[in-house]
Each structure stands twice: as C-alpha cells, then as structure tokens.
C-alpha cells in the first residue's frame, strides 16, 4: 500500500507538522495562552459549521446501502476492501446541481464520503469509473488528511509550502482512486470528466491529452500551479496513466512571484493575492508610522542636543539666584535654535518648550537638595510619546 502515497507527500507532511506545532507553541507562549481561547472559539465555530454540513448531507442526500443503490454500494465496499479500510465510512449521493465533484468529511469521529449525483451519472456508461472518485475521497480519509489539518493550520497559508502539500495530497488520492479501478486508463478517463464534462470523456483521445502536459512549463502556467492546491488536470491524467511519468519542469522564474502569494486553499490564487495585499497593508500600517516616528525621533535628538546649552544656562541662573528668570532674555538665551525651532519659557515652573515643526518638546526641571537642576523631557502639543528621543523615554 505504500505505493499509493505520492513521494513528496511524506516530506511535506513532516515539514508542515513540525512547523505547525512550533507555530502553535509560539502562538500560545507569545499570547500567554490567549491563543488557546481563540482556538476554543474556533472549535465551536467549526462545530456549528460542520454540523450544518452533516445535517445537509443526511437530510438531503441518499445513503448507499445493500438495499439503496446496491450496485454503487457494492463498488464502494470493493474499493474499501482494496484500500484495506476496515471501518467503512458512510457513503451518500447528493444532488450536485451540475457540479462534477465528490468530497470526504468527518464529524465527531464519524467519516463520510459524498458523491455528487452528476459524477455518478457521468460514469453511467463506465460504472467502474465512479470507483475513481470513491477511492480518491477514501484516500483522504485513509491518509488522515482531515485529522491533521488543525495541527498544521498556522503554516498551511505559507507561500509555496501550503500549496505544495495540498497538491501532493491530491496526487496521493489520485493513486488511491486509480487503485480502485480495473485499469489506469479507466481511472484516467474518469478523471478526464473534470476536464471535458459528463459525456465527452468517453471520446477523449488519450495520447493527445497526455501530450498536452508538455504545455505546462511556461511562466504563467508554472506560477498559477505553484499557488494552487491542485496540479493541472493534464498532469494528473498523465500520472494516473503512469505513476512514474516524468512531468516537464516548471519555469524557475515563477517561484519568485509565487513565493509572495500566500496559499488561500480552494479559494484560489486570486484570493491568495488579496491575502498578500492585506498582509502588505497591515505591515504598511505598522511600518510606515513606525518609520515616521523613527525619523522624527532622529530629528528631535538633534533638537535635544542643540537645546542643551540653553538648559545649562537656565540651570545656572536658578542655582545662582535661586529664582526663575521671567524671560529668555534675562537668562541670556536666544528665542530660536539653529534649525528654526522657537523657544518659550514658563516663568512660573521654568518649563522650556521647544516648538519644532513636528510638535512641542518640553523640558521639565527638578532641583535636588543641593539646589542643582536636572532636566527631563516630555511631549507636548502635536508630539506623540513614541516620537520622543530615547533619553526622554527612559524612566
């Protein structure tokens, strides 16, 4: 059964699990356990959403059994036996409203495989073909793709990594689907229904479609596959026909832009780009004000240095006369610094305010028991605390 696992899946499975556990540990430690609260709320939300899906399946679908569509149930049972699945999931048919699809899910320990009615109808002339879809979804359950998702969740949106792991899982499940069919060609033709529809798959010229996989190494083809959770169907078709088939290499230049697009799951690359825009916007919202604060701090550091002679002069005046000067002129100070900043003096408290282009920097005096004056600085009008020079922010 080991040959049913796509080789790359083992690597990505370990990498995403290790990184996911580390990310969870960092989130829990970094938020002092608050991440556990978020996780609890997330589980409750999942519980309600998943319960709605299961209720829809049970309420609107038809469960396969020995008495209900026994032909399909027999094929499902045979596929479970082929994949050595002892605890059989419950299988349903659900109206697909024109969609060729199938999916696997689980809820509170119970597993389900759901076939859209359109998939079953499409395989009407090749009943063995529906086994491909059954086997594919059983592959997700057998490989526990649904149970390990939560542990890996923090890193699955990572560019390249999340999409690569998803594609590897799909390739593994294609192998499971093929194993349930009587031949690789039957499996490949069943898969081709996703490309050409419910009836045209019968007339598909196999060799021409195999050759189509050679069109995939272009830049844009490579880029959009790298950010997608599914390999191109032409590639999947080729690998189902021959598990050892070599695919053309992707365009190397496509990896750079793909590295910038977070993986958005089944929402697609376009949504992934929106996530990227959101992340960039968040970082910009943080970084731009921080950079502006940095530049203002640098300029105010220069103002602080230029103000030091004035502070020394005020301190000496007070120490010698034991009185606060009534004006800057009396203390022998100029009212303007070299950079054009204006000075003003509070004659009651001897506060010296420097009116800069970025806001007011206020120097506050304090006298020790020996009468020696020391100075601290704080922000005034239009100046934020984060924009103060480092020496002003020290406690």
Give the tags.
395 residues, alpha+beta, Glycoprotein, Type 4 Pilin, 2 domains, 4-stranded mixed sheet, 4-stranded antiparallel sheet, 14 helices, 53% helix
Secondary-structure blueprint:
Blueprint: H1 7-30, H2 34-60, E1 62-63, H3 70-82, E2 90-94, E3 102-107, E4 110-116, H4 117-122, H5 130-142, H6 149-156, H7 161-179, H8 184-196, H9 206-212, H10 219-226, H11 233-241, H12 255-259, H13 269-321, E5 342-346, E6 351-356, E7 359-367, E8 373-379, H14 390-393
Parallel strand pairs: 2-4
Antiparallel strand pairs: 1-2, 3-4, 5-6, 6-7, 7-8
Helix pairs in contact: 1-6, 1-7, 3-5, 5-7, 5-8, 8-11
Question: Care to describe what's here?
Answer:
There is one protein chain. The chain is of the alpha+beta class and 395 residues long. It folds into 2 domains: 2-267, no CATH class; 290-393, Glycoprotein, Type 4 Pilin. Helices cover 53% and strands 12% of the residues. It has 14 helices and 8 strands. It has helices at residues 7-30, 34-60, 70-82, 117-122, 130-142, 149-156, 161-179, 184-196, 206-212, 219-226, 233-241, 255-259, 269-321, 390-393, and strands at 62-63, 90-94, 102-107, 110-116, 342-346, 351-356, 359-367, 373-379. The strands form 2 sheets. It has a 4-stranded mixed sheet, with helices on both faces. The chain has a 4-stranded antiparallel sheet with strand order 5-6-7-8. A hairpin with a 5-residue loop joins β7 (359-367) and β8 (373-379). α1 (7-30) packs across α7, α3 crosses α5 (130-142) and α8 (184-196) packs antiparallel against α11. The two termini are 66 Å apart.
